């Protein structure tokens, strides 16, 4: 009845009727108040805009169900859909209809999981429902699919609807996520759609998920009258629901001012301007914030502040968690430096050349030391080792001026200038091999300290030839031993200053422990029997002979120190042998490296993988991203961390 009425409506419209192919009702929700349709049209590209305009203005007449009973259609909307999910409307192959059960989880998974990979060229969907007056909470317990691609590939989409319409998509997932990553999503109504699209290129396990029904609520925000506290987006750290508006009206004691520090802030939506923030946003003091942001502070020059949060109908994210604090107007940061934003930092971090405040206020009006130089435009003081390092640290390139060689001369990595004609002439004119290390196709050359040496003894002049998917050595040795440095979980880490790592994110991380100290040092997996660590860890003291291998136990696959005996992912081994660098200096910490041999081999898993050890000739360019991981304290004398912690930095 409904499909017939819609078909007549289409055919009676001059801009729509000639292109109509078929339509079919696919679902009802909210007690049959909302009905969902698939409609197919065949239209030339030059008429697409005209069809879209006609569809946006379309009105559906009242439908007569039976004698004296009719249905009035209050609104009709049409949206584009995922073209890869468009198919024969009556083909229910790989379509599943699930309803939540009160008080328990309803589970489902990709076809074949966990015994087999999901089929190639899949087009699957799961229609999830809950009772009227409820919302759906969906959680992925396992998610291991093909690595994300710019176009195509395998992916899962989640919709706040029962049809795959673009304006109701909540997220699109691909790649692999560690178990600790919170893949939890909340619907705005009592329905949700999950779709799976795959190509025929690779095989992957797929996913396992479960969902619950929770009581529908729109409550969020509120009036807060405490001196300090914490608040966050609805259901944090799960993805916040679509179509939410929250307002926190915060007032601290009248003799104090108030500021809000956003600790974690994730309101990202693909292709959306983070300047105007037209979709999901937080608004404070008439300023909108969105996207992914490092911790920031918003202050009020009074005891009151209002924080507004808005989410639209599509693309939800983790949201934010924030802390509000009251402070003395005349002394907002006791014994600390007060940033212009209101953030407090240690006084030793002022005028150190680093933007610790986030707004550069800690680097303004500084007197440069003899170990610093002054940028031309900003007048900020920067470390002298930033000069002529190939990176525009000042923003106006003043730190990179007067660093160039004369015309027709080449600058070596060590700063020396040589005639351009001497580049790639099979002679080390620079003295550091840099004029012979980037000559396009790899060519045999004489062996020096700076050239890459193949296993057969041949040297080549290519820069960093190892594991670049090109066989440069005649014996192919530059492409062997390349199964290192790989993380089974491909999720891109969100690192802001320093964060807890996810389980399996750094699978070569090892915890070295003693009975006396517990966790004492870190190490990295190099092979099934070899670990790499720091030599200073194995220096004897009056209380313990740390050079004795029997003192140590290595824990691989460990993430949280509190679970080292309960997690099935953790593998424990005793140390058989310790070989510290013979020239290690406990004064300068030069040559601070040691090799450890395990008492028995380990097996690689998703949570245990080897790290890559670069060749001695490998060049790490200035500005290359580096990560520091471990369980140690973040500062001298600071509290030790129980979970693997990650700090992001740049190489200098």
Give a written overview of the molecule.
The chain has 652 residues and is mostly beta strands. Among the domains are: 2-71, no CATH class; 95-215, Jelly Rolls, CATH 2.60.120.290; 221-327, Spermadhesin, CUB domain (Jelly Rolls); 499-650, Beta Barrel (Thrombin, subunit H), CATH 2.40.10. Helices cover 3% and strands 33% of the residues. It is built from 2 helices and 42 strands. The strands form 12 sheets. A 6-stranded antiparallel barrel has the order 35-36-37-40-39-38. It has a 5-stranded mixed β-sheet with strand order 5-7-13-9-10, with no helix packed on it. The longest helix is centred in the N-terminal third of the chain and has 10 residues, at 2-11. The model is unreliable at 493-497 (pLDDT under 50). InterPro entries: CUB_dom, LDL_receptor-like_sf, LDLR_class-A_CS, LDrepeatLR_classA_rpt, Peptidase_S1_PA, Peptidase_S1_PA_chymotrypsin, SEA_dom, SEA_dom_sf. Residues 1-83 form the SEA domain. One of its GO terms (biological process) is proteolysis.
Short structural description:
By secondary structure, this protein is mainly β.
Counted by DSSP, the helix tally is 2
Q: Could you name the CATH class of the domain at 499-650?
A: Mainly Beta
Largest sheet: 6 strands, antiparallel, barrel
Strand order across the biggest sheet? 35-36-37-40-39-38
Radius of gyration: 31 Å
Protein name: Suppressor of tumorigenicity 14 protein
GO molecular function: serine-type endopeptidase activity
Subcellular location: Membrane
Domain SEA: 1-83
What keyword list fits this structure?
globular, single chain, mainly beta, 2 helices, Jelly Rolls, 652 residues
């Amino acid at each position: 009845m409904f499909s017939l009425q819609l078909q007549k409506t289409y055919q009676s419209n001059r801009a729509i009727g000639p292109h109509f192919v078929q339509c079919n009702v696919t679902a009802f929700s909210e007690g049959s108040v909302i009905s969902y349709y698939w409609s197919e049209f065949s239209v030339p590209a030059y008429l697409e805009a005209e069809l879209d305009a006609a569809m946006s203005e379309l009105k559906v007449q009242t439908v007569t169900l039976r004698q004296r009973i009719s249905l009035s259609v209050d609104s009709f909307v049409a949206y584009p859909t995922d073209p890869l999910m468009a198919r024969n409307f009556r083909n229910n192959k790989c379509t599943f209809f699930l309803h939540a059960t009160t008080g328990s989880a309803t589970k489902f998974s990709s076809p074949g999981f966990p015994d087999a990979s999901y089929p190639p060229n899949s087009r699957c969907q799961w229609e999830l429902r809950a009772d009227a007056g409820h919302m759906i909470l969906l959680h992925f317990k396992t998610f291991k699919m093909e690595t994300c691609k710019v176009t195509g590939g395998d992916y899962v989409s989640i919709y706040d609807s029962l049809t795959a319409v673009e304006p109701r998509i909540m997220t699109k997932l691909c790649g692999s996520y560690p178990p600790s990553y919170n893949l939890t999503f909340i619907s705005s109504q009592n329905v949700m759609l999950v779709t799976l699209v795959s190509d025929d290129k690779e095989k992957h396990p797929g996913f396992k998920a479960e969902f619950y029904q929770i009581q529908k609520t729109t409550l969020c925000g509120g009036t807060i009258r405490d001196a300090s506290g914490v608040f966050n987006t609805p259901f944090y750290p799960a993805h916040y629901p679509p179509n939410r508006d929250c307002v926190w009206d915060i007032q601290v004691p009248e003799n104090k001012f108030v500021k809000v520090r956003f600790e974690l802030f994730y309101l990202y939506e693909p292709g959306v301007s983070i300047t105007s923030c037209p979709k999901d946003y937080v608004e404070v003091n008439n300023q909108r914030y969105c996207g992914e942001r490092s911790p920031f502070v918003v202050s009020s020059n009074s005891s009151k502040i209002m924080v507004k949060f808005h989410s639209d109908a599509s693309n939800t994210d983790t949201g934010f968690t924030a802390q509000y604090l009251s402070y003395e107007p005349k002394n907002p940061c006791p014994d600390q430096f007060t940033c212009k934003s209101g953030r407090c930092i240690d006084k030793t971090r002022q005028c150190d050349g680093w933007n610790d405040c986030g707004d550069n206020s800690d680097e303004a009006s500084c007197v440069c030391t003899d170990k610093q130089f002054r940028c031309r435009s900003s007048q900020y003081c920067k470390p002298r080792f930033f000069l002529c390092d190939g990176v525009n640290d000042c923003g106006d390139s003043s730190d990179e001026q007067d660093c160039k060689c004369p015309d027709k001369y080449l600058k070596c990595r060590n700063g020396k200038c040589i005639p351009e004609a001497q580049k790639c002439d099979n002679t080390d004119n620079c003295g550091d091999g840099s004029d012979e290390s980037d000559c396009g196709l790899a060519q045999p050359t004489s062996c020096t300290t700076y050239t890459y040496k193949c296993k057969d003894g041949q040297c080549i002049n290519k820069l960093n030839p190892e594991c670049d998917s090109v066989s440069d050595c005649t014996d192919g040795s530059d492409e062997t031993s390349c199964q290192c440095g790989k993380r089974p979980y491909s999720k891109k880490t969100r690192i802001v200053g320093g964060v807890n790592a996810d389980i399996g994110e750094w699978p070569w991380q090892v915890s070295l422990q003693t009975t006396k100290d517990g966790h004492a040092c870190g190490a990295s997996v190099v092979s099934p029997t070899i670990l790499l660590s720091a030599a200073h860890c194995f220096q004897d003291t009056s209380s313990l002979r740390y050079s004795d291998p029997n003192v140590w136990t290595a824990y691989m696959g460990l993430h949280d120190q509190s679970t080292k005996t309960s997690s099935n992912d953790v593998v424990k081994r005793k140390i058989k042998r310790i070989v510290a660098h013979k020239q290690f200096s406990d004064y300068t910490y030069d040559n601070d490296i040691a090799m450890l041999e395990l008492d028995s081999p380990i097996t690689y898993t998703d949570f245990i993988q080897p790290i890559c050890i670069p060749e001695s000739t490998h060049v790490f360019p200035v500005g290359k991203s580096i990560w520091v991981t471990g369980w140690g304290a973040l500062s001298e004398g600071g509290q030790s961390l129980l979970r693997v912690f990650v700090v992001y930095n740049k190489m200098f």
